Amino acid sequence: MRAVLTRWWDSDVMWSWRHTPVAVCATVLFVLLMVGSLGAGWIAPHNPFDLASVNLIDALLPPAWEEGGTRNYLLGTDSQGRDLYSALLYGTRVSVLIGLAAVVLSMLIGVGLGLLSGYAGGRLDAFIMRVADVQLSFPAILIALLIDGVARAAVPAGQHDSIAFPVLVGAIALAGWPQYARTVRGSTLVEKNREYVQAARVIGVPSLVIMFRHVLPNVMGPVMVLATVHLATAIITEATLSFLGVGVPPTSPSLGTLIRVGNDFLFSGEWWITIFPGAALVLLVLSVNLLGDWLRDALNPRLN
């Protein structure tokens, strides 16, 4: 185990990470956000969604360093008296979980279709790529809105809150799979003509085995970079949908929901209700994008 960790630490990717200050800072910021969000149940001083602990007398309190603030509410409270710092931790967790689930599902669909398209070729390749081209002609947020609207129209209104999470994940995933499919298809077209693939065909290895055992591992580098960048896009898409009121239910708000709620108070003096959730969203997306940029450079042999 120690030898494996040593080889991993001395690898080219980790050497590049250690010598890239921006990547180190982005990693530290991302880890802090992940620890705070995923550990919100232990770190948050209050449970902002427990009605028994919410006191309307504490509504609209400013941050602790401003006049009228209190150390019990570090970043102030919202219009219902909920601790904004605790709400940020819980909201970040919702945004991250939806983003991760959407990226994984989108990657599974896109990688599978791209691998099949590039390896099989012919009419199947043409059909899959034309579907991807048509979808890419529409903005991802419109595709997500369309899928979300169709799903909500298909179920009774009383069940909308219970299906909000899977619908959001599915909508964002179905809006993002073409990028993976096109990337994997291009790499597969190159890899399937390599000598090791031709040798596997000669000895009678089945096509599915060649695709998933030999070709797939060699096309995952660009996919990992794309997944990192897509995570930031998925989080922003979820925040946009929640801001528009078609995202997660109010009982489990994300950063987008918190920004939408705070937007009503932005010009009345309670700036902290929307500024802090917006800043948390910016820091989260920025850290992911910086990591994606570093990973793209680290995995590109032409830049090493």
TrEMBL record:
Residue ranges of the TM segments: 20-43, 94-116, 136-155, 162-179, 223-246, 271-292
Keywords: Cell membrane, Membrane, Transmembrane, Transmembrane helix, Transport
One Gene Ontology term from the biological process aspect of the record: transmembrane transport
UniProt xrefs under SUPFAM superfamilies: MetI-like
Subcellular location: Cell membrane
Homology family: Belongs to the binding-protein-dependent transport system permease family.
UniProt KW Transmembrane helix keyword: yes
Organism field: Orrella dioscoreae
Domain ABC transmembrane type-1 span(s) in chain numbering: 92-292
Keyword Coiled coil part of the UniProt annotation: no
Protein name: Dipeptide transport system permease protein DppC (TC 3.A.1.5.2)
Membrane topology: Multi-pass membrane protein
